[in-house]
Design a protein that fits this description.
The protein is 27% helix and 25% strand. The longest helix has 14 residues. By secondary structure, it is α+β, with helices and mostly antiparallel strands. The protein has 2 helices and 3 strands, in the order H-E-E-E-H.
């Protein structure tokens, strides 16, 4: 059962790092808005938590990627692997 009131870890520094990696790997300009969030995975056979990265390359074109691990476990290789998918 999901506990909405459970204390969550402070991932702010890790999120900033993931955004920086994403900006570099995808060659995004400084004006590009990047969102990094951690969600409870609802798909069968996937880990409890997944990291979702989204950004807009134009006003209407959104890119969205999932990494099937919590924010704390995401590394630069995971971001590079998104380019291969």
């Amino acid at each position: 059962m999901l506990n909405l009131f459970a204390e969550k870890p402070d991932n702010s520094l890790k999120i900033k790092e993931i955004k920086n990696w994403t900006r570099k790997v995808f060659e995004l300009n400084d004006d590009c808005h990047i969102i990094v969030t951690e969600l409870q995975c609802q798909e069968p056979d996937c880990p409890d938590l997944e990291t979702v990265i989204a950004f807009w390359t134009t006003d209407q074109d959104r890119e969205q990627y999932k990494i099937y691990k919590p924010i704390a476990d995401v590394n630069l290789s995971d971001i590079h692997n998104l380019m291969l998918d």
